[in-house]
Fold each of these.
Amino acid sequence: MALDGSIQATRVRAYFSKIASRYDLVNHLLSAGFDVLWRLRAADVVKAWKPKSILDLATGSGDLACALKRACPDAFLVGADFCEPMLRVARRKQLPRLVVADALQLPFAKDSFEVVTVAFGLRNMASWTEALAEMRRVLTPDGHLLILDFGLPKPPLLSPYRFYLHHLLPGLAAALTGQRSAYDYLADSIESFPNGAAMCERLEANGYKEAHYQPLLGGIAALYIARRG
Ligand SMILES: C[S@@+](CC[C@H](N)C(=O)[O-])C[C@H]1O[C@@H](n2cnc3c(N)ncnc32)[C@H](O)[C@@H]1O
C-alpha cells in the first residue's frame, strides 16, 4: 500500500473507532431503517447460493454477518475488520468467528471462501483495486462476490439527496455522535465511489465475471453481484 493509502487507512480506522459505540443507532436513524432491509436483501441473495463458507469483510459491528448467520446457519462464516472497536460491538452479537484483519492483506489462503460479502466497506478501503484482487484471491473459482454500498440516485431525486447527504446528514450525525468529520467523509466517499454500471465495469476489469447490480431505494444504495472470473 502506498503512503497515501496508509494515511487513508489510519484515518478510516480512527473515524470508525470514534463512532463504534453509536454506529448501529446512527445507521438505523439516518437511513430510516432501510439499512436493515438492505442487509436482509443481501443475505437472501447469498442464501440462494447455498454457500458452505462465507467471508464478511469490513464486517464492522456485524449486522450483515448476523443476517448471513440467520440466512445460512450451516455455512462456515467469518467476519473480518481492521477496526478493533467496531469488532468489539460485533462480539456482543454472538457471532462465531471475528478476525482483526486488513482487507488489503487477508490472513487466509487462496480459494478459501465460496462467498465474499462486503457491506458499506469497499468504499472506505485505501485501494479498491487491491481490495478486489485480495477478495478474488480468497474466493474459490466461480465463487460469488456481493457488495452492498451507497450510491447516488438519478434526477429528480439527486439534488434533494445531495442536500441531505452534504448538509443535513453530517449535522444530524454530529449531534448523535459528536463526530462531524466522519460524516463529512461519508458524503465525500459516496460522491467518489463508482456507481451502477461503472462499478460493474470495474469488477469485470478486475477479474470478475457476470457482474450486475440491483439499485435499492432509487439508487441510494445498490447490491453488486459478480463471480470470480
Ligand atoms: C461503514 S462500516 C460497515 C460495517 C458493516 N459491514 C455494516 O454493514 O454496517 C465500514 C467498515 O469497514 C472497515 N474497513 C475499512 N477499510 C478496511 C480495511 N482495509 N480492512 C478491513 N476493514 C476495513 C471499517 O473498519 C468499518 O468497520
Note: The first helix runs from residue 3 to 19.
Amino acid sequence: MDYDAKARLPDERLDLIGAIPYILMHVGAFVGLFYFTLTWEAVAVVIASYYVRMFGITAGYHRYFAHRGFKTSRVFQFILAFLGAAAAQKGPLWWSGLHRHHHRFSDQPEDIHSPRRGLFWSHQGWMLCDKYLETPPSQIREYQRYPELVLMDRFWLVPPLMWAGILALMGGAAWAFWGMVVSTFLLWHGTFTINSLSHIWGTRRYETTDTSRNNLLLALITLGEGWHNNHHFYQSSARQGFFWWEIDGSYYMLKILSWFGVVWDLRGVPQWVLEGKRRKHDRDVARAATTYDLPTGLLARMDALDQLRAQIARVKERAEQVDMRAQLAQSAADLAKRAATAAQNAAEASQATSAADITARFRTSAVEAAMRAANLAERAAEAARETAETMRDRMTSAWAEAAHRAAEMAAEAARTAQKAA
Ligand SMILES: [Zn+2]
Ligand SMILES: [Zn+2]
C-alpha cells in the first residue's frame, strides 16, 4: 500500500463531545464494580445479554442487512434489527451501509476502518469521528419500504434504552448494571475486534486483496465472525465457518431457526470455495492444465488475466455508484472484460497448437480468436482513454489502465498464436 496509512484526513476529527456517552459507559462499568457484587447470577446475565445481542449484530446487522445471506419475514427482520440495535452500535441501516463500504474498499485508502491506519483507529477511533455519523443514502433507499427500520435507524438509542429498562424490571439495578453496562462494554469491544484484530491476528486460507484473517478465539467471542478471511473471500453465505471444525454460533442458530421456518434460503458456500480455489475460474484452468498439459508460462498468463478480470469487476462495481458515468464506464469495462476473456481463449488455443496432434483447423481458429481478442481489447482501451479524458477521476483511470493491460495481453496472445500457426 503506497498511502500514508496512519495519516488522518483533515476532515476526520474525533468528536469528543459525541464520545462522552461512550466514555461514560467505560467509566460506569469500572466504577460499578465497587458497588455491585459479582455473583453467578450476574455472570449469567452478562453472558446472556451479550450473546443474544451479539446474535442481533452478526446474524442481523451483518449477515442479513449487509450481506443478504438468508431470507426471513418482516416480523423477524424487525426482531433482528431490534436485537442488533440493543447492542448500542447505532441503527441497522447505518451499520450495514458502512460495512458494505468496508468490503468494497477493504484496506485501500477509502476503507474507513482499515487497521493499516492504526489499531486504535480501526477498533473505535473511526466511529468516534463526526465524519461518519450519517447513514449512507443508498441504504435508506434500499430499506425505505420498511418505515419501522428507517425509524429505528434514526432513533437508534431507543432499543438499548428499552433493553436496559427490561433488565431493570426483571432484576433491578444489579441486572441493569451487569446486563447493560458491563455486557455492552464487552459486546462493543468483542464486535470491534473484527475490524481491528481480525485483520491482524490469525491465519489466511484465501489470498484476498485485504488483510483479513481466520481466528478461532475471535470466532468464539463473536459467534462465528472470527472466520473473517473466509468472509472477505466469499461474503454472501449465511455461514462464515466454512468447515465443520470452524465454530460458527450464529450459523448454528440460523440453521435451527430455519427448521422452524423462521428464516429460509440460507445461502451456502459453493464447492469451488471449499476446494480452496481462488476463483471459479481457477478450477477450469486446473482442468485445462491436465487436459493439455499446459506449461507454467501459460498458467501464469491466465492468472494475470484472471486478476485483470477481478480488477475489472471491482471497477465495474465502483462504476455502478456513479450515476451518470455508470453507463459509459460499464460499457467500456464490459468491453475490456470481453477482451480479457477472448484473449484468454486465444492464449489457451494457441497453447494447444503447440501439441503435435492438434489439427490445422484448430490452429486457424486460434489465430482468429487472438485477432478478435486484440481487436476487442483495442476498442476497449480506446473507449477507456476517451472517457478518461472527459471524466478525469480515479475510477475512470483505473479501468482505462485495466483495458490497456487487456489490450497488451491480447496482443501478446495474438503473437503467440501466430507463431504457433
Ligand atoms: Zn461483511
Ligand atoms: Zn473486514
Note: The radius of gyration is 26 Å.
